[in-house]
Prior knowledge:
Elements: H1 6-18, H2 25-36, H3 43-53, H4 59-71, E1 75-79, E2 85-89, E3 91-92, E4 95-96, E5 100-104, E6 110-113, H5 118-135, E7 145-148, H6 151-154
Parallel strand pairs: 5-7
Antiparallel strand pairs: 1-2, 3-4, 5-6
Helix pairs in contact: 2-3, 3-4
Amino acid sequence: xxxxxxxxxxxxxxxxxxxxxxxxxxxxxxxxxxxxxxxxxxxxxxxxxxxxxxxxxxxxxxxxxxxxxxxxxxxxxxxxxxxxxxxxxxxxxxxxxxxxxxxxxxxxxxxxxxxxxxxxxxxxxxxxxxxxxxxxxxxxxxxxxxxxxxxxxxxx
Length: 156
């Protein structure tokens, strides 16, 4: 089992305890896999990786844990149009892991878009402010996905 640093371990246990859950070996293994992932993983992808580390964890454990982590706000669940839910951590080591996605509708490539320019940030903040006012709704986050063709598919 990968060893977390003490600070991260305390944060994780505090987060679970605060929501009424225990940190089990299986849950910790799933979080470790999501932490190390360099792409958006499906439940089946996570299961195959967890099973190598912790063979006692079944696919049902993975699905239940993902549901709990999503309810707790620790992960995001995405549908990129390929019929499979994908997951990623909502926070990284440096805090919030906010980004948008560019999804190729031909090859299903997903690009994490993080290099926002000032004009984009200003537009999104203004949009959130106006929507909040219009619908008397307190917005605390947003998820944006852009669909189209990647450079490779566009040139075909």
